[in-house]
Amino acid sequence: MPRVKGTQFDCSIASAQHGAANLWQANVGGRVLSDNQPYNVSTEACFTTQSDCEAFLYLMNGVLDQIITSRCQMGYEKSFFDKLFGS
Question: Which domain of life is it from (predicted)?
Fold first, then answer.
């Protein structure tokens, strides 16, 4: 799995540097069907260009066996749980 937290693609870091309205936010969720135990994956990452955001989706589509959600949107929005719990 690509590491996002703590990197330039971490949305909290990117939004502090570039401003939330100036970012493209990628949201990806799905399943990895391993031989041992299938597991769910959900991640978000932020980019300064739409093409970088779409490249991340393409990368994640190769990592996940089943895609549930895969989208880029202009502007960073904290997730529902982040808003509730302040994560």
Answer: Bacteria
- Laid out side by side, the sheet with 66-74 consists of 39-47, 24-32, 66-74
Confidence of residue 2 (pLDDT cuts 50, 70, 90): confident
Q: Read off the tokens for 36.
A: 């041992």
Integer angstrom CA distances of residue 52 from 36, 42, 81, 85: 33, 18, 26, 29
Half-sphere exposure of 15 (CA within 13 A, CB side): 15
Residue whose entry in the numeric block shows the structure tokens 């300064």: 48
Report which secondary-structure segment, H or E, holds 13.
helix 11-18
Q: How many contiguous H segments (helices) and E segments (strands) does the chain have?
A: 3, 3
> Would you list the domain boundaries of the chain?
11-76
The pTM of the full predicted model, rounded to 2 decimals, is: 0.84
Confidence (pLDDT) at 65: 94
- Just give the CATH number of 11-76: 3.10.20
